[in-house]
Amino acid sequence: MNALMRSAAAVAVASGLSLTPAQAATEIQLFFPVPVQGKLANEMENLVARFNSEHPDIKVTPVYTGSYDETNLKTRAAIKAGQPPAAVIMSASFILEYVINGEVEPYDELIAAEGKTPAEFMDDFWPALHGNALIDGKVYGVPFHNSTPLLYYNVRLFEEAGLDPDNPPATWAEWIDAAQKLTRRNGDKVEQWGVMMPTTYDYLGWITSALNMSNGGQYYNQNYAGEVYYDTPTMLGALNLLHDMVFEYKVMPEGVNDANSVTSAFFAGQLGTMILSTGSLSFVRENMKEPYRVAFVPRNVRNAVPIGGASLMMPKGLSEEQKKAGFELVKWLTSPEISGHWSRFTGYFAPNRHAYDSDEMKAFLVEHPDAKVALDQLAHAGSWFATYNTVGVRKALEDEVQAVLSGKKDPAQALKDAQAAADALMRPYVEATALSYLN
Amino acid sequence: MTDTTLSGVHLADSARKSRIHETFGVALLLLAPSLVFLALFTYWPVVQVAWQSLTVESFGGATRTGLDNFQRLFADARFARAAQNNIVFAVGTVVPSIVLALAFAVGLQETTRLTSGLRTVFILPVMIPLVAASALFSFIFQPRFGLLDYYLGSLGFGTTNWIGNPDLALWSLMGLTVWKNAGYYMLFFLAGLQAIPDELYESARVEGAKAVQRFRRITLPLLRPTLAFVVVIALLQVLTNVDHIILLTGGGPSDSTNVLLYYIYQQAHENYDIGLAAAATVVTVAALLVISAVSLRTLEHGIHYEG
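^ inputs. structure came back:
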């Protein structure tokens, strides 16, 4: 063997050796939206860096993909382009559409490889979250962070109005009564409102469904993607409540208000009660100067709220290695430790029940009783909008509720129109499924 | 003789022809890169959208060709609403912003320290990106605590829900658009005014023409080419800029601020109805072409060209 060949062989061995670990690392992407503030994006980068250092055989690239809606768009584009991310933090109400379109992989095989059944795997997560995670008995979404609507109230204003802050309104009747006492007028001008809630798109659909559920309703068919129940007595009752708050009792401002307007009024001490997400707990805690407390969303028939938030899902079109690496990441991100950390950082629930077993989390709940109330309400939570064309079907309701809040339509007519609009949007799916047994 | 002349003519003709061919070849070669990109990223998508608008998809992937998408589009009350909003929005923003721009330009025509300062003030909104301006106005429009309501409140006015009231929301967005665009159009008018010879004004003054007469008889007719240009870009701008609508109202409340471009987005990305989105795109682009052609022709019709 001459010198040249020997050195060539040495280079080959050396480069081979140095390349080995790099080749073994499976490269995957994580798409993540940030629904609230910028510092969440930084924290997600920190978490992924930690995951990568703890898992030398996997290299995750976190890709910030904007809002939930933008993440939905970008995920579809990535799937169409044949470059799907191994994990996406996707709004829990969008996952069903991926299932309908055959674009998402269930986690069942990966769960089975660990010797677990889907039911055993899901047992770690709060029961309220199962509805949006399990579709046709398969695990399509692993809950990552979740929220529900919550009633926030100003303690000082309660005391000034002669209300007992230890007994916040629990029923709609008590809510209206308290709101009337909390509303303060100066001539035509209202200086202090009894109730406010965000009524812009997305938020409004969520709050309306909370009121519908509190009235005993079930606003969509949880077993079939082509059916919603808008034109129903339970929904009419919910809309009547909103209508009466604005026009009968005049305890809530007319028209549409965004979350900023609602929180501005609350932080300024000019709002008695507001409905806002539990995901905003940290935000309210940081910005509210006066004492405030939280309570369940008031009920008419029963206590019930929809969940919100996001789950991890796995698009189709990945290699076996990528699937395994993606599942490794999903398990890590939803582990009790990381789940609890993220929950304390953001204000969202930890979907993993065992996150609340840690001493850190127990101490946190003692220190922040508002987080405890939010968690207790989870026992009364149910699943969130998931239909064919979710956004459009939800908007069909929201447009009509906005018309009611603006005094343009009466609740009964609004619901007839909402039902018709939603039915029209779902018709192609209904005709191809429920109304057709031939294919 | 005749033969030679003929062949001479023939020769010259063919030489000219080949020269034309040559220049055409060179032109084509030079334009080729742009043409390739135009074809790839403009004309091909246009063809695709046109084809897509004629493709009728049913759930499950079966497709056929037909006009169903257009039928559904014209039957959709939301499309009619978006088109109507768009017309109100276009007229209600283009007319006031051009009138304001013209007034500013004529008023600030002379360059003094004061006028150049004022010009800067009017051009400032142009430099703020529409997205940033929308974020700003989300605070300005806030009921009770926003800048607008705060100062109106100190003057004794009540609370106004500027973008949460379906009767008012579109007008609030129009106010924002006029604020944003008037300064931009003023720039064009200032440039147009520079081109009007001073002698015309001087002789008008000598003959005793008042300011209003000078404006109507000299400034306005001679600014007509600028006006034609500004009207067309203003129309295109209000139809293609929807950032503020997306950020401030999302088309709401109850679709009261929805416009064609956002309607197309909703059909494509919220309802996954690509056929309907494509049909709406075809109709919108056709309307834009007609508007541009008609407005350019009518405005150019009475233009006085000097020289």
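Residues 40 and 82 of chain B are 30 Å apart (CA to CA). Confidence is low (pLDDT under 50) at residues 1-6 of chain B.
thumbs up if we can close this ticket
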